Amino acid sequence: MNERLPLLRKKSMALPENPGVYIMKNSSGKIIYIGKAKVLKNRVSQYFGSQNRHTLKVLKMVENVYDFDYIMTDSEFEALVLECSLIKQHQPKYNILLKDDKGYHYIKIEGKEYPRISVAKQKIDDGARYIGPYTSSFSVTNAVDEALKIFRLPQCSKVFPRDIGKGRPCLNSHIGLCSAVCSGKMSREEYLESVNSAIAFLQGSSADAVRDMKKQMNECAENLDFEKAARLRDRIYAIEKLNEKQKVFAKSVEEQDVFSLVQGKTLSCFMVLRFKDGRLYDSEHFFVDETDEPSAMRNELLKRYYSMRDFVPKRIMLDAEAEDMTLLEEWLSQKSGRSVKLVVPQRGEQAKLLEMCRSNAIDKLTQKMGKSTKQENALAELAKVLGLPHAPEFIESYDISHTGGSDNVAGMVVFKDGLPFKPYYKKFAIKGFTGQDDYASMAEVVERRFTHYLDENETDEGFKQLPDLILLDGGQGQVSAVARVLEKMGIDVPLFGMVKDSKHRTRAIAKNSGEISINSKREVFSLVTSIQDEVHRFAIGYHHKKHSKTAMKSGLVDIEGVGAKRANDLLKHFKTLANIKKASVEELMQVKGMPKNVAENIYNYFIDE
Asked: Domains in the chain, please, with CATH?
């Protein structure tokens, strides 16, 4: 524990009740965290109050705080702007920091007399002109390739004007992809005009380029410059043909970014799809080694992302609410120089784009964590359906089995990362009562399980693991009975039931207030069905075994001198009833505490039988 907590708490209580930025430092004076506050005193004092309410990340940060500074501002918005600037400058350890896992790329224009356009991985001082940087090599390479084809610019290694008139034009000129500068049929002025048009195309949008070229084409036609008008017509046609081949994702939106946050237990993936003219032109993803409260994480991630990017679109789609949405919109609007809206769509075309973004984020996260994409998709979708903060890594499921109220047992199975984890399976014999009461049975079993969890001396790893989700085989009745037990014990784990139809097939998920249909969620339905089938198999298997032993004992206790304990000792020694039937008197007497007369009674009983 941080020994300076009392001092830090006292200092924080003396802070002004103004908006501002606070700066946490370690014992070396290094900045380890920067945050903004609407009220400095209230926000900073929370760090040094009760440590029970903090996440693991905050606890670690507070443990390393030696001192803190603060800067007052006139408004919370000014605090936000200052916070973003300081984080970008200092890169503190405990702030969420996004790092590109790809390098920057540039569009390079080199040569003065006959400039050539190409892609460069770095910007060097060689006299060339560079456009960029861009974070996506794919989009830059594709854009340059498209520009060279549309404006019929050379892609060969020939040097102009040195190689003009030397040799025959290459295949590209014969198939209409090059103007064959090398043949001498294209003037330098025409070449420069094509290069400048290509650069304008690369720096703007295809829609803007087409609009400008159509205007130029009409002007050329009016001035009877039909040759240039024909060249412009061909370029327009090439762009339109290219656009026809590209998939249109969102016809109603000119430009927007779409974000999704997918959280594992220890790792999160932040994904963005970027659209312009209704088409996807770039995608980026970032991994964050933490899983904090989702709305707070979205807030931090958006601030970090747009601190790294110059361009902010007019519309930003989010998969759920972010903290301080209004403040974020104000900051993004100021940065963009125009109004920016943060939107959380619920249905329609935009919701489908978000689902595509989410699916990509899940895929990236599963690849990073080395898990099955199918299982991770199902877990992420289950978390979404149930409103969980992250995909459940550990799921515990319980089922009760008995025969008419006798031999009551329960089975507990564990699914880890969407697959059965048999080392943690547990069996329970119901001890609290006799007769049939599934609600009381379920409550007893769960209470016994978590009594083990709360025992500081517990050594069983299966009992020491707190699950991310509990699924009971049953409906609202079972859920209500167990919810009371968990509340009484102070166990905060999401709890739901698994409901079957009249044909004993999984139908829905039960909660205290009703049911959640999962029939339309194929991956969730398959996962829940597999959990329900597995816990039923395990529980009923244990019941059959226990019931058969009971039947055997009941047959043995009919023999004079054999009670329940002696029947247990016989079964423990001989394993099966068949072996007891075949045993001699001498062999029966080898059972601990077995007198000769009782051994003879057993032997004679089965001989007579």
From this structure: 5-90 (3.40.1440.10), 110-204 (no CATH), 255-370 (3.30.420.10), 394-548 (3.30.420.340), 557-608 (1.10.150.20)
